[in-house]
Write a structure and sequence with these properties.
Blueprint (H helix, E strand, L loop, with lengths): L1 H23 L3 E2 L11 E5 L5 E5 L20 E3 L6 E5 L8 E6 L4 E6 L5 E3 L6 E7 L7 E5 L1
Parallel strand pairs: 1-2
Antiparallel strand pairs: 2-3, 4-5, 5-8, 6-7, 6-9, 9-10
Keywords: Signal
Protein name: T9SS type A sorting domain-containing protein
InterPro entries: Secre_tail (IPR026444)
Length: 147
């Protein structure tokens, strides 16, 4: 009789301990895919024995400066497709503008600075499709086909 009473008493204490643990936790236990709100108290289990708790807050960062580029919308590139080179036509001056030629894989193949005739020599490139881009974003990118 004493053994049965002792086992029953021990089982009862263990049950109350778990119930007490659930009522102490006023926050929520976070799983790997859980979402929490700002200001919510959370408990993050480190393992089966220990846990950490805290309050979720907001971290705000300000962007100090965003450099704005003046983009020329009136630029035309011709001839397209081409066999040797292309010309740029614009109402805005492009002398000294640095342009780059990229392969479709994203590899930079050549860079050049536009002179007064606004010509970009592509004769060293093999046949294919290329992307022409301004280094300082003065104009949008152009896709050029070279035969």
């Amino acid at each position: 009789m004493r053994k049965t009473l002792f086992v029953t008493l021990l089982f009862s204490v263990a049950m109350q301990g778990q119930a007490l643990l659930q009522t102490v936790n006023s926050g929520s236990v976070i799983a790997a895919s859980s979402a929490v709100s700002v200001g919510e108290i959370v408990v993050i289990p480190e393992n089966q024995i220990q846990s950490q708790s805290g309050i979720i807050g907001i971290l705000t960062e300000s962007v100090l400066e965003v450099k704005e580029y003046q983009v020329y919308a009136d630029i035309t590139v011709y001839p397209n497709p081409t066999t040797s080179g292309i010309y740029f036509k614009s109402g805005n001056p492009l002398v000294g503008e640095k342009v780059s030629v990229y392969a479709q894989s994203g590899q930079k193949l050549l860079s050049a600075i536009l002179n007064t005739d606004y010509q970009l020599d592509l004769s060293s490139l093999s046949s294919g499709v290329y992307l022409i881009q301004s280094e300082n974003k003065k104009f949008k990118s152009f896709k050029i086909v070279k035969h």
